[in-house]
Design goal:
This protein has two helices and ten strands; from the N terminus they run ββαβββββαβββ. With 163 residues, it is mostly beta strands.
Length: 163
């Protein structure tokens, strides 16, 4: 199963999804994508050399909420998800609550082994790493108390699921 993450005016990242490693996480992501949840949302946190994060805010920075899911990673008692946080890996964002992930996800720009077993990785970009690089290199600043926000919105046009 693949996800085509279409970034407006930039291109498409094609990612393999791994339901055998994080079944509830993939099911949640696929369900949200198929419902159109991600259309028009932005990558609101971009840190070059680390990751790009999106899936929770629109261009006006209004938060779009959905239900949280159980975190599928070792530190939360979930066995079997051994996906390392290497370049291109998709993972679920969360707060300090291990079961707070909902719709926000991040894509690793570079390897971050300190995240392994701490966040629910669930896929990996197989094509379109140039799109990832372009997004990771945008100019960022502050928006209210939010840091690392692109100065020009980086919009998720759509996320299409290909079975």
């Amino acid at each position: 199963m693949k996800a085509l993450i279409k970034v407006k005016n930039v291109g498409v990242m094609s990612a393999e999804l791994y339901p055998e490693k994080a079944p509830a996480t993939v099911e949640n992501f696929v369900s949200l994508a198929k419902s159109g949840f991600y259309k028009g949302l932005i990558f609101h946190r971009v840190i070059e050399g680390f990751m790009i994060q999106g899936g929770g805010f629109d261009e006006k920075f209004s938060h779009k909420e959905t239900k949280a899911i159980k975190g599928e990673f070792a530190a939360n008692g979930f066995a079997g998800n051994d996906i390392a946080h290497t370049r291109g890996v998709l993972s679920m964002a969360r707060t300090s609550d291990p079961n707070s992930a909902s719709s926000q996800f991040f894509v690793m720009h570079r390897n971050a082994p300190h995240l392994d077993g701490q966040y629910a990785a669930f896929g990996c970009v197989t094509e379109g790493l140039d799109v990832l690089d372009t997004v990771a290199e945008v100019a960022t600043g502050y928006r209210g108390y939010f840091a690392d926000v692109p100065l020009t919105a980086v919009v998720i046009e759509d996320i299409e699921i290909v079975d």
